[in-house]
Amino acid sequence: MSIRSKVSSIVPWLMEIKKCQMTQLNWKVSTRSWVLQNEDMIEEVMTSAKDFFHQRFSFTILKNTSSTTQFLQQGKVNIMGLEITSGTVSNIYGINTTLDADVSKYGTNSAKVENILDEMIRTAMLIHGYYDIPYGTIIFASRSLDPSLNGQVQDAVKALNEIFKLYGFQFAFELYTNEQFT
Fold first, then answer.
1. What ranges in the chain are assigned the alpha helix state H?
2. Is 120 in contact with 114 (CB distance < 8 Å)?
């Protein structure tokens, strides 16, 4: 089974279980047709998260980022889903997934956690910056994450939820790994 078909197997879950009316694979912002909003807030959140994770966990997240716009334009969201109630987006799902051994490409355990955090932060900031929505469900999914990373990743994601709440966001950062992935 190809990675694309594995990723697209999440789409029925979004549509049937999460009741999304629209899904898209490999969503990437088009700078020709989308205008970045909330740039000052995004910059502030990114700086705070970077400092927090360095001080508390010795993680170096959001490295090699010369600007907010550049950081956002570098990424894509593997799967987006919109749940619409009474003509309004009631929830937006941003799912980044690394399947099989792809997580191993990140290098050290710290680098793996840092990259997962980068992807989750970027997804939330893409939603806030380009959809102007301060809420959503941000998921990192992997069916084979090294069990030795589990505690570190869970602690980091819990802290990420706390940071975003301090700024008044209503993003829920979640992990679906190993057994939970199914």
1. 3-8, 10-12, 39-57, 68-74, 109-126, 150-166
2. no
Measured between alpha carbons, how far is 131 from 121 in angstroms, rounded to an integer? 15
Q: How far is CA 122 from CA 45, 74, 92, 107, 116, in A?
A: 11, 9, 14, 20, 10
DSSP output for 44-96: HHHHHHHHHHHHHH----STT---HHHHHHH--EEEEEEEEETTEEEEEEEEE
Nearest to 138 by CA among 116, 112, 155: 116
Write down the residue that tokens 């629209």 correspond to. Answer: 22
Q: How far is CA 130 from CA 1, 2, 33, in A?
A: 33, 30, 10
Radius of gyration for the alpha carbons in the chain, expressed in angstroms and rounded = 16
CA atoms within 13 A on the CB side of 133: 20
- The CB-side HSE value for 166 (13 A sphere, CA atoms) comes to 12
pLDDT tens-place values along the chain, 182 residues long: 455 555 667 899 999 999 999 999 999 998 788 899 999 999 999 999 999 999 999 999 998 777 888 889 888 999 999 999 999 999 999 999 875 445 556 578 899 999 999 999 999 999 999 999 999 999 999 888 888 888 999 999 999 999 999 999 999 999 998 888 87
What pTM, to 2 d.p., does this model score?
0.91
